[in-house]
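Q:
My hope is that you can spare some time for a protein that puzzles me. I hope you can help me see how the letters and the tokens relate. Thank you; the sequence and its tokens follow:
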Amino acid sequence: MSGLRYLKIFLILAFLSAAAHAVVRIMPLGDSITYDDTYADSDHPRPAGQRSGYRNYLWYKLQDAGFAADFVGSQIAGQDITPPFDPENEGHPGWTTYDIAEHAYDYMVNSQPDMVLLHIGTNDRTTTNPQGVADILNAIDQYEVTYSKHVKVFVALIIDRKEPDGRIPIFNRRLNDMLQQRIAQGDDIVIVDMYNDAGLTSSDYADNTHPNDNGYYKIANVWFNAIMQNSTFNDNLRAFPTSLVARQYIIDVSYDDTAGSVTFTTEIPDTGIQF
């Protein structure tokens, strides 16, 4: 073939993450920061279909990574967002940790999640005691025992307010201590430091409490990284490289599950491969 030669590239995939063949049921659980509610919604509420919070951004990232997710929950919010995403969630504006704890067991039974993303505590203004979160985790443990299920729980150290709230770092410190104790006792919990790792600045808030789209995008990134770094679901997900050669030169792609390898057959112009 004039001007072209064949090259076969053999790649050993160094990273295999959660798998494509099994759908992972994920419950976003929390308050208004999960559902997407702002102070402005009190006077001029947006339709539920326009509320997405971090959930749409997380959904897009999981889909791009080939992570087969199914968001679950009794709430539907964000169904009119474009591009579309799975709008099911368990976000309840204004609720405290104790409010969520009262219903957590029923939520688990009704939705049967494999994974829970919990960001809760912002509305616990009268206390820095994380007992309400412990009660939620107890309800999840009860569900696991009763139904012989396993649930991986990602618990966030919650974000601060736009005007820093001195209660929140105390709450987070006590929450972290409690979570570490539960992990030591065998609970499958991942601590997600949303307080520090989201890197929210004053420009990332819609009001003093609730993030704007940019803030939610940052929160989604933290959830995504935590999931991908700590998930053992679907061990055979294939993470195909996308920048080795231009798409139009790829003739064939084959994979070997046993070896954990991918083979690309490509046509390469005389000018060489463009990385």
Observations:
- Confidence is low (pLDDT under 50) at residues 1-20, 236-245.
- Helices lie at 32-35, 55-64, 97-111, 131-147, 167-184, 194-197, 213-230.
- The two ends are 23 Å apart (CA to CA).
- DSSP finds seven helices and ten strands in the chain.
